[in-house]
Amino acid sequence: MRIYILFVLLLLSTTINAQSKFVFNNGAEPDTLDPQLISGLSEMRLAEALYEGLLSYNPKNLTPQAGVAKSWKISQDGLHYTFYINPNAKWSDGTPVTAYDFVLSWQRALTVATAASYVNLFFIIDNAQKFYKGKINSFSKVGIYAKDPLTLKVKLSKPCSYFLDLMAFVAFYPIRIDLLDKYKTKWTQPKNLVTNGAFTLDQWNSRQSIILIKNRHYWDAKNVKLDKVVALAYDDINTAYKMFLEGSIDWLPAIPTQQIDEIKLNPDYYVSPYLGTYFYRFNITKKPFDNVHFRRALIYATDRQSITKNLLKGGQKAVSSFCPPVAGYHPVEGCYYNPTKARQELKKSGYGAVGKKLPPIEILYNTSESHKQIAETIASQWKQVLGIDVISRNQEWKVYLSETKKLHYQVARSSWIGDYGDPSTFFSIFRGNDSNNRTGWNNSKYNKLLNQAQTETNPKKRLQLFQQMELLLVKTDPPILPIYRYVNQGMLREYVMGWYENIRDIHPMKYIYLDKTN
Fold first, then answer.
1. What whole-number distance in Å separates Cα of residue 455 and Cα of residue 365?
2. For the chain, how far is it from start to end, CA to CA, in angstroms?
3. Strand locations in 311-410 (E)
4. How do 80-85 and 21-25 pair as beta strands?
5. CB neighbours (10 Å) of residue 83?
6. Which distant-in-sequence residues (6+ apart) come within 8 Å of 203 by Cβ?
């Protein structure tokens, strides 16, 4: 009997351990785990597990809820926010999380040398932009200060309807500045990284996986059911798909498009709306892309319908607009597929008579079978309609990000997923000096309209300003080629609980657990 009981206990122990590990394919090797430098979705998934902002996302509807801040107050004029830090909030080394951690972290984000990816999101804070641009030397004049270790006060330059949403976004996460100063560029390595989220970094196996383990010092650790999260870094989606079929992966956030018909029959397949757009960027600092007629020729020569209907087949919507419908916004359509207009624009560009003699155009994309197929399809379309030779080149995620940021490309595969529920999350990235622009495009009229939209208090007029901006972006002076509107599309085991469909594809690991009892 004793042997039998020991066997049962061992079996139960094995089952519990198996249920406490969640494995998913993150699609790429992260470029960084520094929340203020992050710009890619694969990095954000990890950051949301490792760190926590003043607020966090409700897993079902993504509304802002308590995070490090247990409560908050907003003044009647909508300019003053007071956040009360949870006294039980701790870093993974057991030290308290304080209001000073946020002040120092946000000051770092507003320091030019940091090159924070989303620094423009901070500019809604009073004097933040002036400090960033050197017009104010003292950070004490910026509307961010700690009244005491558990009270953070923030003053805005104008009311912002989505400010609480920003407080849950990755760019506003706190970091340990003391450890950054101590370890410099190595502060995010497993042995050095200290975080304040539901998980902490255990292993970083280059090009293979990142392993997170439960943070026992997390203030809400009792409600975190996973002991371990394994994020695989397979950019070969076919390999990841095979592993899912073999039972090695619990969640596959992307699928091989060439097998979509087969995948749709699998009960683990899911598809839902997504607040994101797949598009191509043009590097307008390089000839012939500095010519707006040449860019429009390529856009008119692109048959997006054939891509979504014959290649992707997952419910994606072919679009000529950039910003999806969000918060009452109605997109402005740009240049539809029209071979005749494409040839006319090519002729206007001055390259029409020598179209076939142009050096081959290069499309850059990060390694992915789907990106490859789309690039090859578009290359064929441009060749057929305009007689232009096109080649494609793939690079691993880190290199791809570096090359696009340095403008070392001609045409680059891109995407943008809304970071919060407002059109500005899409339009702000094409401000001339925004680090997420990556096109070399700096349209003064667009910048002026964006500034106006940021100060406009009339909702209807504000949406009209965004429409004027979109007209510039997708038709009048386009630096981009919109291709399709994303859908959330992947595969999820039926035993995965606490994972909910939403338009931003945010699934906090804190709430996920596995139930294999059925």
1. 36
2. 27
3. 317-318, 361-366, 390-395
4. unpaired
5. 24
6. 190, 209, 210, 211
Residue 96, Cβ density class (10 Å: 0-12 exposed, 13-18 middle, ≥19 buried): middle
φ/ψ of 469, rounded to 5, equals: -65, -40
Contact 293, 306 (CB under 8 A): no
Relative orientation angle of helices 369-386 and 237-246, to the nearest 10 degrees: 140
Distance between CA 55 and CA 83 in Å, rounded? 9
DSSP state of 96: B
| Count of H-run helices and E-run strands, the chain | 16, 19
Other beta carbons less than 10 A from residue 209's beta carbon = 17
The answer regarding whether domain 271-488 maps to CATH 3.10.20.30 reads no
* Residue 209 to residue 203: CA distance in whole angstroms: 8
The CATH class, in words, for 9-227+493-514 is alpha beta
CB-CB contact of 168 with 61 (8 Å): no
For the chain, where do the domains classified as CATH 3.90.76.10 start and end?
9-227+493-514
Four-point Cα dihedral 47, 52, 54, 58, nearest 10: 90
* pLDDT tens column, 170-216: 999 999 999 999 999 999 999 999 999 999 999 999 989 999 999 99
Q: What pLDDT shows up at residue 17?
A: 45
Which residue has 């757009």 as its token pair? Answer: 277
* Residue ranges in the chain modelled with pLDDT below 70: 1-19, 353-356, 518
Alpha-carbon span 96 to 85, nearest angstrom: 10
Buried b or exposed e, range 135-164, using 16+ CB within 10 angstroms:
eeeebeebbbbbeeebebbbbbbeebebbb
d(C-alpha 163, C-alpha 179), whole Å? 28
Q: What are phi and psi of 78, to 5 degrees?
A: 75, 15
Helix 369-386 to helix 339-349 angle (10° resolution) is 70
* Cβ-proximal residues to 24 (8 Å cutoff; 6+ apart), any chain: 229, 230, 231, 232, 249, 250, 251, 252, 253
E strand or H helix at 183: helix 177-183
pLDDT, residue 12, reads 35
Q: Closest Cα to residue 470, out of 346, 322, 337? A: 322
Nearest to 71 by CA among 141, 203, 167: 167
- Rounded Cα distance between 158 and 414, Å, is 32
Nearest alpha-carbon partner for 502 in 63, 198, 66: 63
The segment(s) of the chain belonging to CATH 3.10.105.10 are 271-488
pLDDT score for 457: 83
Q: Can you name the residues that pair with 152 across neighbouring β-strands?
A: 83, 146
